[in-house]
Amino acid sequence: MENTNKNVQDNSQKKGKKNGKRNIVILILMFLLLICLFIVQCQLNKMKEQALADQKLSELALRQKEILDSLRLLEQAKADSLKALEAARIADSLRRADSLRIADSLANLKPGVNEDSLRRVRDSLRAERRARRDSLARIADSLAALEKARQDSLNKLRLADSLRNLDKVPPTAEITPPPGRYYDPIKLKVKCDEIKCKTFVSIGDTLNPQDAGKGIDYNKTGSVFFYAADSVGNRSAWEEAKYDMASDNFCGKNAFPVPVGGKTVCVDAYEYPNQPDATPKDMVSQEEAARICKNEGKHLCSIEEWQAACRGKDGFKYSYGNSYRQNKCNTNTKSAKRSGRKTQCRSWYGMYDMNGNLWEWTSSTSKQHPDKFLVAGGAWNTNNESSCSESKFSFYPQNQYPSVGFRCCK
């Protein structure tokens, strides 16, 4: 009986501990979900602010055009008013001359008739003078209003110009797909970091720019030049992208040949499971990664094979060039992304996500610690340390880490 009670108590304690762990896991997941929601909200706010800024610039340009049209109408109205004033003065002079002639004629009439007629003429002249003064006053008021409106329009125009002059930063242009070797025809398109932006490409040189907004079919080896221009006239400098269109990919699906030390190695294009838009496998030990690659008729990439695939034919520090670009790869976020989502994070030979996203196991051991294996490339939060030469060793090859994955070679 005592043993039974003790077993019941032990089971209750184990169940309580299990429930406690489950609750802790649920709390952690809820906390991570809140963080993700916060990050998404921040990105949405940033996009909204950018859209509002571009909308204001567009409205500013439209307002400037309306102001210029208003100024032209005001100048025309002022000219018409001046013509009307001159015509009124001439007509008034003619009426006064006619009245004087009438008065002189009436002076020669009989006294009774003459006095009454002169009184009517004087009344008529006074009425004419009063009407002339009123007309001139109205014309003067109209001219003053036109001049005030013209000055207001000029002030608005100067304000619009000053606001336009505040934006002197050229946009950032980015060509898609990125430079490198391809085995099928591609469609070139240039993206811009501003919403209202025009993009251009020129094949072979900078002499024949054409609109790159809708995409251009391309299937030749050579250079492509590109730039972007924003809605207020700022434009980026010409940039060059080099392409090598090949037709000899013998590596099969989602793998491409890489020359390594006098031989050619087929390197997977994506982190395991080597599928575009798939979630890369983490929490895998070096031993398990090597076993998975072997089961697929491949092997876990060595550090030499991995770095050759990452550096490309020009031996870059990063898969995309020698300077760190935060927006190119997943190197400054809170978690790994699906394979290939960062389309600019592609090496010359066609491997994605070799900088950032997940550290990747290799089959090479550390020279300082022969019992420990190297991982390469950095993770989602390693920033500029996510280079092709960056590597570190694990404590034990059987360890699993949430930030470490792998890719296979053959």
Write up this protein.
The chain has 410 residues and is an alpha+beta fold. The chain folds into 3 domains: 2-166, Glutathione S-transferase Yfyf (Class Pi), Chain A, domain 2, CATH 1.20.1050; 173-245, Immunoglobulin-like, CATH 2.60.40; 249-410, paralog of FGE (formylglycine-generating enzyme) (Alpha-Beta Complex), CATH 3.90.1580.10. Helix content is 44%, strand content 18%. The protein contains 4 helices and 16 strands. A 5-stranded mixed sheet has the order 2-8-7-4-5, with no helix packed on it. Strands 14-13-12-15 form a 4-stranded mixed sheet. Strands 1-3-6 form a 3-stranded antiparallel sheet, with no helix packed on it. Helix 1 runs antiparallel to helix 2. The longest helix is centred in the first third of the chain and has 106 residues, at 2-107.
Taken from the alpha-carbon principal axes, the silhouette is elongated
- Strand residues, percent: 15-25%
Per CATH, the class of the largest domain reads Mainly Alpha
- Main beta-sheet strand count, sense and barrel state: 5 strands, mixed
Domains, number: 3
Give me the strand/helix succession.
HHEEEEEEEEEEHEHEEEEE
Q: In CATH terms, what is the fold-level topology of the largest domain? A: Glutathione S-transferase Yfyf (Class Pi), Chain A, domain 2
From the N-terminal CA to the C-terminal CA, the straight-line distance is 64 Å
Total DSSP E strands: 16
Helix-strand category: alpha+beta
- Low-pLDDT runs of 5+ residues are none
Query: What is the helix content?
Result: 40-55%
Radius of gyration: 41 Å
Instruction: Give me the CATH architecture of the largest domain, please.
Output: Up-down Bundle
The main sheet orders its strands as: 2-8-7-4-5
SS summary, helix count: 4
For the residues shown, what is the average pLDDT? Answer: 83
